[in-house]
Amino acid sequence: MQIQQALLTINKYSRPGTKIGPIKNIVVHWVGNAGSKGISNRNYFESLKDKKTYASSHYIVGLDGEVILCVPETEIAYHATVANSRAIGIECCHPDWEGQFNHKTYTSLIELLADLCKRYNLNPQIDILRHYDITGKECPKYYVKNNLAWTKLKNDVAVELKKLDVDQELISAINKLIAEGVMMNACNWNSIDKMDLRYAETLILRIGALFGFSDYKATIDYLQGKEVITDRTLWDRKEFVPKYIRTILIRVSKLV
Hints:
This is N-acetylmuramoyl-L-alanine amidase. The model has no long low-confidence stretch (mean pLDDT 95). This protein starts with a strand and ends with a helix. It is 44% helix and 9% strand. Strands 1-4-3-5-2-6 form a 6-stranded mixed β-sheet, sandwiched between helices. It has helices at residues 38-51, 103-120, 124-127, 131-135, 141-145, 147-163, 168-179, 200-210, 216-225, 233-237, 242-253; strands at residues 3-5, 25-30, 59-61, 67-69, 87-92, 128-130.
């Protein structure tokens, strides 16, 4: 699962920039617009700043399984009324008005839900909710009308959750860095067996930005000075090794 970052502009109506409270729930929605694309729904949320309508979600899962981050997990999105202050919202695209998610959408949704449950220590059977469970709105439609399908969805998340390698120290470090404003796709880094090294340099630059540095070398200089890095040879060569990235993430989390 790859997450595309397409953050909304901070505005009163769809991304207020308000800090979210402790995450207690994940709320699943349907977009309510059959056949529409993920990015189109993201752009709709963006347009609300000019229409003076309150609505948004943290994530959108598209028809091709793409996952779009619209609002950082550290901020409130407007998707579930009284639950906004404690819940991550996920809007899902659907091919028709019956509202059942297609295979690609469903697969990415299960992976995203499992990742969020892991990082926020949530129980899929209790803490994953439908919009319907909060407000009574028929959303997500198919999974309101078909309780067995909703039960299966939560069971599938529980199965996926068991597959995730548990590295609680690393996960805690990642959550802390995200809370401090480091933009990263947590599922790219929460296991040394699954790290996506294509984005390692970008990760280092984003860590550097946390401390006021805008280039790679200055960031490595700083991390060496703070004894986060002891031998910088591989870092200077940009030869990234998962176990060393793990060490950096954990040590940097203790600096902030």
